[in-house]
Specification:
Helices cover 36% and strands 17% of the residues. It is of the alpha/beta class. The longest helix has 15 residues.
């Protein structure tokens, strides 16, 4: 990941290239992937690994890293996701509770883009272990996320 400006704007990485969102506008939207991942924090690193794993299988997806949930550049964010049919949000929080997926849903409202949130299940858990163990227990490990992402491609 790289910081593209002092305001920490979102960027898009896909098809082996990294673009600042404004440059992505110049690219043909029809050449973009059908699914993009939108993530923040640690989950961005996981999203980039998943993108690499899928690329090795011939599946091109994009990744948008939202560095700043409090004050993202909304116009650039929408441009980065223009033409994408499905957005999968990845967060270490509870979906549908005002986090990343809610921000994405609000910013893409009216575009027809399908939003598929992934995060921790809203339940008490008594498992203890390292982060990857807890991710796997909640379907947030790379293999589970990869399978979840491929489902929208099949429909």
């Amino acid at each position: 990941c790289e910081v593209l400006s002092q305001r920490l704007q979102p960027y898009r990485q896909g098809n082996g290239q990294t673009w600042q969102a404004l440059i992505a506008v110049a690219a043909s939207p029809s050449a973009g992937p059908n699914v993009d991942l939108v993530a923040t924090g640690f989950m961005t690193q996981k999203a980039l690994k998943i993108r690499e794993r899928l690329a090795a299988r011939g599946v091109a997806i994009g990744v948008v890293d939202v560095f700043n949930l409090r004050d993202p550049d909304e116009g650039r964010f929408r441009e980065a996701l223009r033409g994408v049919q499905t957005v999968v949000t990845l967060e270490e929080g509870f979906p549908h509770r005002g986090g990343l997926d809610t921000l994405v849903r609000t910013l893409l409202d009216g575009t027809g883009t399908r939003i598929k949130p992934r995060g921790f299940a809203e339940r008490y858990t008594f498992e203890i272990g390292p982060r990857e163990f807890l991710h796997a227990a909640n379907g947030l490990d790379e293999a589970s996320l990869e399978a979840f992402i491929l489902r929208p491609l099949a429909t």
